[in-house]
């Protein structure tokens, strides 16, 4: 592990996102809460929260952190795309980017697991950090980047 003993304890926040692309009928089933396995979004939300709290156990060399809060939210971007946004905060010596990414990814994997029986064409894509704040390196926002000249495919 990286030695963070000399770092200051500060308030830290990270936001990550992921997308799950599926057939329109599958997303409609999720939105109407008519899936045979139950409320897909609530199960995925709980899985994302639980995963964020266990990131130190899941990702090699990640520090176990005292998580202050975790939120996992969902929004339908169109008739086939479910956007997932995970926000994690802590007051610690190191950031929570990995916790936010783990929460978003686990929520997406849970959606996949719950609906794969009705839609094998699901695609999980665009898992990425959107924002981080706190710590020595300061704030960072994906929206502030000039992505027009970079290959992010």
UniProtKB/TrEMBL annotation:
<dbReference type="InterPro" id="IPR050105">
    <property type="entry name" value="MoCo_biosynth_MoaA/MoaC"/>
</dbReference>
<feature type="region of interest" description="Disordered">
    <location>
        <begin position="133"/>
        <end position="153"/>
    </location>
</feature>
<comment type="pathway">
    <text>Cofactor biosynthesis; molybdopterin biosynthesis.</text>
</comment>
<dbReference type="GO" id="GO:0006777">
    <property type="term" value="P:Mo-molybdopterin cofactor biosynthetic process"/>
</dbReference>
<dbReference type="InterPro" id="IPR002820">
    <property type="entry name" value="Mopterin_CF_biosynth-C_dom"/>
</dbReference>
<comment type="function">
    <text>Catalyzes the conversion of (8S)-3',8-cyclo-7,8-dihydroguanosine 5'-triphosphate to cyclic pyranopterin monophosphate (cPMP).</text>
</comment>
<dbReference type="Pfam" id="PF01967">
    <property type="entry name" value="MoaC"/>
</dbReference>
<keyword id="KW-0501">Molybdenum cofactor biosynthesis</keyword>
<dbReference type="GO" id="GO:0061799">
    <property type="term" value="F:cyclic pyranopterin monophosphate synthase activity"/>
</dbReference>
<dbReference type="InterPro" id="IPR036522">
    <property type="entry name" value="MoaC_sf"/>
</dbReference>
<keyword id="KW-0456">Lyase</keyword>
<feature type="domain" description="Molybdopterin cofactor biosynthesis C (MoaC)">
    <location>
        <begin position="1"/>
        <end position="135"/>
    </location>
</feature>
<protein>
    <recommendedName>
        <fullName>cyclic pyranopterin monophosphate synthase</fullName>
        <ecNumber>4.6.1.17</ecNumber>
    </recommendedName>
</protein>
<dbReference type="InterPro" id="IPR023045">
    <property type="entry name" value="MoaC"/>
</dbReference>
<dbReference type="InterPro" id="IPR047594">
    <property type="entry name" value="MoaC_bact/euk"/>
</dbReference>
